[in-house]
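Changelog excerpt

This revision adds worked examples to the README so contributors can see how folded entries look when concatenated. The first example is reproduced verbatim below.
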Amino acid sequence: MTQAYLIEIEGRWYARYRKPDGKWTHKSMRTSKKALAQVNFSAFLKKLEERDLHFSSVRPVPLGEFFEEYLRYVKTHKSRAWHEKQNAYIYESKRARKERRVTKVLPFFGKDTLTTQVTSRKIEQYAETRKAEGARCTTINKELAAVRHAMKKAEEWGYILVNPARKVKDLPDDGKIRERFLTPDEYLLLLRDADANDSGPWTLPNERFTDLRELVMLACNTGLRRSELLFLEVSDIDWERRVLRVRNKPHLLFHVKNYQERHIPLNNHAWEALRSMLQKKHAAADFVFHKSDGARWTDIHDSFHALVRRCGLEAEPPFNITLHTLRHTFGSWAAISGASMRAIQKLMGHNSIVTTERYAHLSADSLAAVARNIGAFVTNSVTTFANSDKKALPEKSSSGLESWCPGQDSNLHGPLGPGDFKSPASAIPPPGRQS
């Protein structure tokens, strides 16, 4: 039974009631009139009874049991990559357990803690602990997003009354945009040394990735993500139209990021790489990149990093070259060649144009180019107007143009030379000398 009663404080009426945790609190009835307060109090009591009825149906469970159920749900309804990330956020890895410094969700809250004991403040303390360990805010925010989604499912399943993570705010974004991309010379250098093999003698032949040349060519000319490259199948290629399709493959537990399928036209380099891989195709495999027995590759980082070392292109982050650098190279080259941001967004499969705008400073249609075009337009317009009829030029306009085009002392470092605005101004007689 709900414990509540009506009280008057300094001429205003309030409902005083006991919360589910046993603590007393009060809520304003928004009136100083007793009769209206009683009406509002009756409606408020009805809401409290509905809340208590719902709260009585909540069945708290230990977090260890809940997260096992949650990850089974994720594995069934989400992509494999998403499931792996959620699992990494929640459970403590062997490396973290050995180093005893990386905190994960379940070890922090405790596997025997009930779902109803997780509070907003406790979640904020988790974020503070991760921050003190040196984790980046962008990483912590991803972990908080995982907690929010998990607690949302706990609310839907009746394990908690209200999602405590709903009011927890993200930390300030400290993400660094990687602007490293390959120059044409670096691209050719990778292709030249891609066929060399410096794998150790302990490496099994079936574990040596020998298709680095085709991988670099295809990634730099299509912008495919690493997972999209490794799940690419021969059937995804329209050989007649020279178009590559990036699609979801639920039967392989693979989903394109943001579930956005797309079609990518193939240029000569990408076409050559795919034709080369077609000639190497294993009879029992449909994957473009596969092992000697036809199995799909899962990890090729070591082979690619060995190629970067052979080429002498090693560097410290954020200037190092990774597999994702190849995708970034495609976007950068597209912007430099004059492609619109909308076209790049569609080709790369970005969910938001904001992500694509990291390439805007490389575009031929950049702000500097727009400024130069405006300058040329103004220069031509002023010249035409000055030469058309000098008598029609008002005195205020001439003095305004002199102050606007001071000559050699202005715009010394801009894309336009000092004389670009001086000649139109010099063609206009100064005030007092007009005929």
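The second example, added in the same revision:
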Amino acid sequence: METAIKKNTITDKLLAEFEASKPALFGDLSLREEAMRSFLKQGIPNRKSEEYKYVNIDAMLKGEFSFFTYRPLMVKQISNTRFLKGAINIVLVNGRCEEKLSDMTSFPKGLEIGYIADASFNEVFQKHFSKYADINTDAFIALNTALANGGAFIHVAKGAVIESPIHLINISSAEESTFVNSRNLIVVEENAQVKLIESFESVDCTAKTFTNSITEMVVEAGAIVDYTKIENENEQGYLINTTQVYQKEKSVVTANTITLSGSFVRNNLNVALDGEHIETHLNGLYLTNENQVVDNHTLVDHRKPNCNSNELYKGIIEDKSSATFNGKIFVRIDAQKTNAFQSNKNILLSDEGTINTKPQLEIYADDVKCSHGTSTGKLDADKIFYLRARGLSEISAKKLLMHAFASEVVDAIKIESLREYIEEKISKRFE
């Protein structure tokens, strides 16, 4: 169903699309309507909005957008997106699950994967959907909750150990400017273990795609989740990517965010530690060039005592590109014995590049160990000189130093073949 309603503002167009789409939307319509009211109240963020002050969202949303997202692709067109051998590949084209392109025939014991629309009557879905991504905290969370019409539902049963990685392949593909709202719900029950990869690619994409994606992830007691997000869209790709993680006691989550390309990428990674003896590890790497904009916002919410979180984000900024890191650690009054550490390091490769970095601590408990730090600079001239004195060219010396700088994040990825894939992509970027 394509909407071609002429309205004055993008907000008018989105409201019109919501009204027209109501009969086809899955799930609780009253929740959808509440979310749309929240979106209208908040409005599209602009530079006056503290959380979006370094990006011009209004400019990105100018012009006409289609909300008709169906785009048939052939298997051979997506062959390069299946970069992990032995993975369970789930392909979403503009948010729509494509069964013919996915590995949907059989799953290991304890694993359930399906289209999010088909899961709306599932008891686990109803218990968790939209319980963690708060529609009143961000206009794009509210908008996604109102308009989401595609995505995946992943359920890992209690005690299940899924050996094969699950790879959600998000593909942007359009011939005309397209607005996509995609929603995933991932529930990992007690003492289960799973490795998840979520990648964002462009295939046969000749027009702007503005993707507003949300992944809610529930990690129950004692569960272990290894999650890697790779963003590699083309210059037509505009992505707002929210990952909302909710952890219970004794769970362990490692989340790696690798941003390689895309005209605009906004990452919201929010983690709630709602139990004792939780471990959370957040690692991020962003490589920007030309006029690219990458905006990373993280929130680690320590709600209970005796938990540990570690956060390391690194960026390499080239040309006229800009990057933002805004990391917040929140330690509530009952979260005694918290250990929380955060670090952001950046290299500027040009005088025209921009980095905005804002690490934050809000601590309301008194028996904690918390720290944060940030640094920004250029490549070390002494190290370049040292390497050149040993026979390397200036370009080779710089490439070697940038690889060494990025490796601390890349080495945190536990899946060897995935780590090798990312290293190859980084090498091509440095060339």
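Reviewer comment on example two: DSSP finds eight helices and 19 strands in the chain. Residues 381-431 form one domain.
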